[in-house]
């Protein structure tokens, strides 16, 4: 088995258009959630979100690209450029054949669906733009990354709702660990902040109208976000040989299915995934200093997640830190685990634990150290990143500091 | 009008619960009817569509909602309130 390290990271979300700005926001506990600026906002009952600010695709892409790139692809490419530049890898030669792309998204080109449904249903037109299909397909982002960077090995997209990115990164980890690939560009992206995308979520009645307050007794639901985060997962020997700057080591991954309910989470399913990631990573519970929680801010998730953590870690659950950065960037659905992995890297590399902001009042059912409101400087040697999706699909990654 | 609201709400709940309308008792709770969270959200949607009203309900804080779901009678009263406010 090969060791797997992260040698590049890139991102865009409501917090910033790059990793540096995002980590600064995490340190400051800055909130990127605010009033949505989208068409027909007045017809929505949920009018807030973690929307990318100041997005101008013309700066990053030419006209021919823009007509082919849905916003979820645009976000992906921006983040991929940052990650691959940082890694210093060039895939033009042999390496391109030994490297791949595995990305997560729950819904792909939602804005493209939304705009074109308007065209045919609302405006009554009988013709749509010829590129609707290649623009909206869930694998469009992965394919465009492969084309821009000459990645010719395994390239595909994973779609498991809110766990999409973690499942994608877990797959990338396995592909490098097994020796199938030298490097895999991985992570995820989502762009659902449009009228239809939010209207669909409103229906479930789990959204907050004012803020995302994970683990707080006063929490009243989730808030959607948008954006992407992309990483370069690389064979450790390959990275070490070329003297690459290593951000962190990925040591374990586990996935489980609740096989229970299509929306309600299961403590047992979550606990099995957490315990599985520890086992796979050869970690003892006491090794883990920080968990980036799924922490959606719904009544059901936060309660269940805390119970699962308490169950797996026993007395150590009271000593570790667990926070939800969704309080800052919102829930990026299929892209969320990727953006949240940045908080894990920050914990391992910089010794800074991102806080759970908007925290108001302790909930006895979430009685863990949730790092309320203010970031903390603490050295940790291993961390976990949780993702628990609708459909009962759980995916947990385990990371260690760079070797 | 009041009788119509009551009958229609019972019809909606009965359909969700897979029960006959005559088996629904006013004091029944959602649990008695075997309705889970998805069944409740779907019932509220059906009620909104049937009466063209908006039901203020957030699944994260069912207790805090001004829409009382503690029993069939409570739900009917809450819907009657919303329907009469809409008429006013």
UniProtKB/TrEMBL annotation, chain A:
<keyword id="KW-0812">Transmembrane</keyword>
<protein>
    <recommendedName>
        <fullName>Nodulation protein E</fullName>
    </recommendedName>
</protein>
<keyword id="KW-0997">Cell inner membrane</keyword>
<comment type="function">
    <text>Proposed to synthesize NOD factor fatty acyl chain. Involved in the synthesis of a highly unsaturated fatty acid moiety, which forms part of a lipo-oligosaccharide that is responsible for host specificity.</text>
</comment>
<dbReference type="GO" id="GO:0006633">
    <property type="term" value="P:fatty acid biosynthetic process"/>
</dbReference>
<keyword id="KW-1003">Cell membrane</keyword>
<keyword id="KW-0808">Transferase</keyword>
<dbReference type="InterPro" id="IPR020841">
    <property type="entry name" value="PKS_Beta-ketoAc_synthase_dom"/>
</dbReference>
<comment type="similarity">
    <text>Belongs to the thiolase-like superfamily. Beta-ketoacyl-ACP synthases family.</text>
</comment>
<dbReference type="InterPro" id="IPR014030">
    <property type="entry name" value="Ketoacyl_synth_N"/>
</dbReference>
<dbReference type="InterPro" id="IPR000794">
    <property type="entry name" value="Beta-ketoacyl_synthase"/>
</dbReference>
<dbReference type="Pfam" id="PF00109">
    <property type="entry name" value="ketoacyl-synt"/>
</dbReference>
<dbReference type="InterPro" id="IPR016039">
    <property type="entry name" value="Thiolase-like"/>
</dbReference>
<dbReference type="InterPro" id="IPR014031">
    <property type="entry name" value="Ketoacyl_synth_C"/>
</dbReference>
<keyword id="KW-0472">Membrane</keyword>
<dbReference type="InterPro" id="IPR018201">
    <property type="entry name" value="Ketoacyl_synth_AS"/>
</dbReference>
<feature type="domain" description="Ketosynthase family 3 (KS3)">
    <location>
        <begin position="1"/>
        <end position="401"/>
    </location>
</feature>
<dbReference type="GO" id="GO:0005886">
    <property type="term" value="C:plasma membrane"/>
</dbReference>
<keyword id="KW-1133">Transmembrane helix</keyword>
<dbReference type="GO" id="GO:0004315">
    <property type="term" value="F:3-oxoacyl-[acyl-carrier-protein] synthase activity"/>
</dbReference>
<keyword id="KW-0536">Nodulation</keyword>
<dbReference type="Pfam" id="PF02801">
    <property type="entry name" value="Ketoacyl-synt_C"/>
</dbReference>
TrEMBL record, chain B:
<keyword id="KW-0597">Phosphoprotein</keyword>
<keyword id="KW-0596">Phosphopantetheine</keyword>
<dbReference type="InterPro" id="IPR036736">
    <property type="entry name" value="ACP-like_sf"/>
</dbReference>
<dbReference type="InterPro" id="IPR006162">
    <property type="entry name" value="Ppantetheine_attach_site"/>
</dbReference>
<protein>
    <submittedName>
        <fullName>Phosphopantetheine-binding protein</fullName>
    </submittedName>
</protein>
<dbReference type="Pfam" id="PF00550">
    <property type="entry name" value="PP-binding"/>
</dbReference>
<feature type="domain" description="Carrier">
    <location>
        <begin position="3"/>
        <end position="83"/>
    </location>
</feature>
<dbReference type="InterPro" id="IPR009081">
    <property type="entry name" value="PP-bd_ACP"/>
</dbReference>
